[in-house]
Amino acid sequence: MNCPSADQIYSYLENELTSSENKAIEKHLLICLKCRKALEVRKFLLQAIETLPSWQVPSGFSQQVMDRIFPVKVSIRGWLTAFASGFVAFVLGFFIYVLATGQNLSSLLINLNQSLLEQAKSISLVFIKFFKLISVSLKIIHQLSGQFIKALTLLTTLFSPEVQIIIIIFTLILITFSIYGIGRKFLIGEKQ
Hints:
By secondary structure, the chain is mainly alpha-helical. It has helices at 6-13, 19-31, 33-51, 61-69, 76-101, 105-158, 161-188. The chain starts with 5 loop residues before the first helix and ends with a helix.
């Protein structure tokens, strides 16, 4: 007989096998030291498990687990209550501010309106200057690229095709190293 599996040994210990299977395992245990040791270990584990105190689940444990799995949805009434509370707190704070500063409601609203208008003016000026800067930069880049193309066409008439290929390869190598260096500086950063 081959050595029994761990399941068979546990079934033997718990008397779940037929009498012929029990006799076959007992016969094998007489000749196999490894299986006798495994049986001893399994007996020890079963005894240790049987001596453990039974563990009681705390009351409400299942509900706590289910609440964490499926959180309770807040009803519309809950959202409306939260919104109303926030609105009341805002109005109350506003009236406390009016009382503390001694301003009346109309002058406070006028000051708020003027402040918002000034902020809108300053933000719009920043956007106008930003877009103007972009348009001027695009015009300059367009003019420079035109001049660059004119210079390249002039160079092609001055040099032979072999020299042109060497210049193009050298330029591509320089551009590649420049892009690599810029990327390394900005993306990775240099250690100082």
